[in-house]
Design goal:
Distance between the termini: 23 Å
CATH class: Alpha Beta
Shape: globular
Order of helices and strands: EHEHEHEHEHEH
Number of strands: 6
Largest sheet: 6 strands, parallel
CATH superfamily: Response regulator
Radius of gyration: 14 Å
Helix content: 40-55%
Strand content: 15-25%
CATH architecture: 3-Layer(aba) Sandwich
CATH topology: Rossmann fold
Structural class: alpha/beta
Strand order of the largest sheet: 1-6-5-4-2-3
């Protein structure tokens, strides 16, 4: 597993920033699974991922995400940590237990950024940790496979 990267959110997302960035945003073409029990947050993030040139699907709970993995085969899973029933930590551990999913990038989505939460995400098998709300430059860098500048 790669070293966990820390993508922090620093700037608010506005309509103007989306339009300004879409002209020069690299198109990764990655398949991205977004898992969040907040329907509005999940759908908004999916729209941004698609604007940036990737394919997105949404699951609103951990069990649905696991059920979608084999058919959708995402390269990246953006995974909320605090969901009822099956937490993002549980989902990450279940996915990391499968050898055929070793190359899938797991990205934690959390409103929390303290060291203990980041340690927990690393221990659960996440590759990166994003702080909500995710801003456009951070998402663009993530989809391009690089750290934001």
């Amino acid at each position: 597993m790669a070293e966990q990267r820390d993508f922090g959110s620093t700037a608010p997302l506005t309509d103007a920033s989306v339009h300004a960035s879409t002209g020069s945003a690299p198109e990764s073409g990655e398949r991205v699974l977004i898992v969040d029990d907040n329907h509005d947050a999940a759908e908004s993030l999916a729209m941004l991922v698609e604007i940036l040139g990737s394919e997105a699907q949404v699951a609103y709970d951990g069990a649905s995400a696991i059920a979608m993995i084999d058919e959708f085969r995402p390269a990246i899973v953006l995974l909320d940590l605090t969901m009822p029933g099956m937490s993002g930590f549980d989902v990450a551990r279940a996915l990391r237990a499968r050898a055929d999913l070793a190359d899938v990038r797991l990205v934690a989505l959390s409103g929390r950024s303290e060291a203990e939460t980041r340690r927990q995400t690393r221990d659960a098998g996440f590759d990166e940790h994003l702080v909500k709300p995710v801003d456009l430059p951070t998402l663009t860098a993530l989809l391009a496979g690089s750290a934001p500048t």
